[in-house]
Design brief:
Largest sheet: 5 strands, parallel
CATH superfamily of the largest domain: DNA Cyclobutane Dipyrimidine Photolyase, subunit A, domain 3
CATH class of the largest domain: Mainly Alpha
Structural class: mainly alpha
Number of helices: 22
Strand content: 5-15%
Bound molecules: flavin-adenine dinucleotide
Helix content: 40-55%
Radius of gyration: 24 Å
Shape: globular
Number of domains: 3
Strand order of the largest sheet: 3-2-1-4-5
Length: about 500
Amino acid sequence: MTSSSPSIVLFQTDLRLADNPALSAAVRRGQPLICLYVWDPKATGYGMPGAASRWWLHHSLQSFSDHLQAAGNDLTIRIGKTVEVLSHLLRDFPKSHIFWNQSCEPDGQEIERDLLTLLEAEKVEGHRFYGNTLVAPSTILTQTHNPYRVFTPFWKRLQAMLRSSPPLPAVRKIPPQPSASLKSVPLDSLQLLPTIHWTQGIHKSWTPGEKGAQTALRKFLRAPAKVYAMDRDRPDLPHTSRMSPHLHFGEMSPGKLWNAVQQAKQKNRKAQDKKSYDAYLRQIAWREFAQYLLFHFPYTVHEPLYTDYQAFPWRNETDSLRTWQQGLTGFPIVDAGMRELWHTGWMHNRVRMITASFLTKDLLLPWQKGATWFWDTLVDADLANNTLGWQWVAGCGADASPFFRIFNPITQGIKFDPDGRYVRKWVPELADLPSPWIHHPWETPPLVLAEANISLGETYPQPMIAHAAARNRALLAYRQFKKGKSSPSSSFSKEQGTMACL
Ligand SMILES: Cc1cc2nc3c(=O)[nH]c(=O)nc-3n(C[C@H](O)[C@H](O)[C@H](O)COP(=O)(O)OP(=O)(O)OC[C@H]3O[C@@H](n4cnc5c(N)ncnc54)[C@H](O)[C@@H]3O)c2cc1C
């Protein structure tokens, strides 16, 4: 079958049939359709997903391709620069209409700019949609028409703008491709899977794809969603949704997720449960804020939002970075987090904050080093959330935690992993240590250590640094940095409210 005017849907981080406005619009158009995914192996830096993320992408593309086949089409995979691939396709199908959902990432924005130029040059119709965010990021501005840099006013504005329209239903039937001879490269040729098999732990922990996303959501709504407000900071309990990789790859839209939680909230009468649903919706809004910030401030991928921080005297040292990466710092909660990350490709949010604070404050290493490690090891590695998270902890981003807020890994462990269950799971060499000592084994009486078969420095490391001294060093560096700045820029002191109180 051939057609003079097919539709092309360019998929990026929206690998789903449900609530996908670009796909639904192309299907409604009724013309033969090309479902296109372009892999650019020459992408560098953050343009290239990290190793754990590539594993997820492989399985997500496989699952998406199966779903498209069941609906009567197939995924056309091509390798190269997106705009060049599209330009080639337009030679074969010159009057195509191109559909896509906007990406907030700098690479996605660049693809869009190139695409708009191509559309104009080729006199081809393009249709852009907003399926990756709750609202179009360009439409939320302050009264002075600037982007928000503080979460709470952004959140208020977002709530005022949200419409309670239901998500688009899953597309069940897709028109066939315009030509039976349309070429696609095999998924395996993208070489997304690692050649060394280190992904068994990740494999056991996750089910990539749209069905996996729906199952994860159902499981969360069945029980954990009702205690989310109370338990969301407890890494020892499975009470967060683990939706992050599904959201990152667009296997579920934020709109569908939002709607499902709102419905669950409406059906539930208990005030305590409602509070939990609201707490969860607020976290979805943090994701929206991260996407929004990346859209408006793309430089933040490499530089702090508050550019004064570029001059911060981070240390340049690789041994401590490696010790942190390997989960051998001697601080059990930090090591548990880093090992959970390595083993499963995910880490609990509270522990992400603790490990990030340890790297940037106790070790005084640049946040970019931590962000890069997370980028390579997280299955949910997401440019927007990762950048916001690291800058928040390092004190240089939007609504950031002030630099002088330094997480104490011992008290954080005691508070959020009170029985030490999380530590015992990921640091098995401490498994037999009684709870009162589990977060500070170096203070444990020798007899207790011996009974737990622990020999510090041999079976488990001594702390790589004394936290109190590390804290003082970080505060001194910060004070000197502040003093060294002749006049604090207005952006630094005014907008970053918490900083202003220094
Ligand atoms: C240093 C650091 C790095 C981070 N890197 C990433 C990353 O690369 N990818 C990523 O998806 N998240 C990142 N986060 C945010 C957060 O830790 C994860 O989104 C969350 O742990 C994912 O687990 P969940 O789906 O069970 O979360 P839930 O608690 O169930 O939350 C539901 C969803 O809300 C969003 N969300 C929750 N907390 C945050 C937050 N603090 N900021 C932005 N969105 C949030 C996520 O999309 C999440 O899936 C980072 C946080 C920090 C402190």
